[in-house]
Predict the 3D structure of the following.
Amino acid sequence: MNQLTGNAKASGKGKNGGPRMYFHRGRRLRNLAKGWVDSNAFPWVLGVFLTLVLSVLMTTSQSVSIIHYQLGDVVRRDIKAPDDMRVEDLAATEVLRQKARDRVLPRYDVDSELEGKIEQRIRAAFEKIQKSLAVQSAVVRIRMLNLRAEKKQSGIVSESQVYRTLFRSPAFHEIEASFGQILGGSLSSGMLEILRKERYVAWIGDDLFRLVRSALARGVVSDTRLYAIHTSKGIVTRDIRSGNIVRFPSSSRPLELREVEGFLIRQSGKKGLQLPRAAHRFLAAQAAKLVQPTLNFNNQATVEAQKRAAAKVPAVRLLHKKGEMIVREGERVTKSPLMTLRALERSGGQAYFVDNFLGTVLLVSLFLVFAWTAAHRYN
């Protein structure tokens, strides 16, 4: 006969065949709890728990009245050290930490790849404008030939005519402006005239780099006065490319950035430049725009090193013997005893709360023991 109402319930299972796990688990937990309550340790654990809870509730609501003195206040009574105590002397600690900061040598950064980057920039600028010059001059030549053909004029178009026309075109003026920006800034009219006359030949870039290299070899800083102050006690130089500390001759006298142009004008006659002497000052002015400081003062790294040095200095602590007079009644609070008074305020408040809490724990414990004993005796 078909069973339409489900399978018969097996022994030890629920209505749909599931075991009575929750029933047995709940009964097991109740048995464990009953056994714990009936054990000898339960009253002690409960007593300790109630003691701590009641002590915390009773002591956290209390406050201690401490006189807070400020600088210049008049002391109402003699104040002595209650126990032997050590108090940090902030002034003496700061003096030692400042000495540690002063011993830190200034940090300077050097770029070992600076010369190579400038040389690469000069060559890239001349290569780029040489390509533009070739393309633009061919376009101008074709345009001029077509124009002559339309007018039925004979003859050839000379190179000088092509370049004169090219140098007057606004399109090439934009190319020259871009060229000048690569070389550190706008081109002066004198430098522009030299470049156009020589049609941006590559050896002008060689002369330019020769001057730049002479300035970099001398050394360049942003402020020679600051550099002189730093080198009087020594500096630490770090290569920003490798991160390594490098040696730099302390006897060298680098140029200040604003002195570079005059230095290059004086050096231009000694470097065997291919340009005529009349063009040297224009070339030197352009080279000065490419020169960057070879030694850069790293203020952030110096400050961080000073902080690390100051943090290593331990605090100076003054010892006050028990009963030693800190400040007398009627005296005004000065900076030196104020630090000791602040330490007394902190330690006094902490000691008050600790003592009060321990006393409350003792009283509550006695009360609970008495109540437990009375309950057992008179039950």
Remarks:
- The chain has a mean pLDDT of 79.
- The beta strands are 79-80, 85-88, 107-110, 220-221, 236-239, 245-246, 255-256, 296-297, 317-320, 325-327.
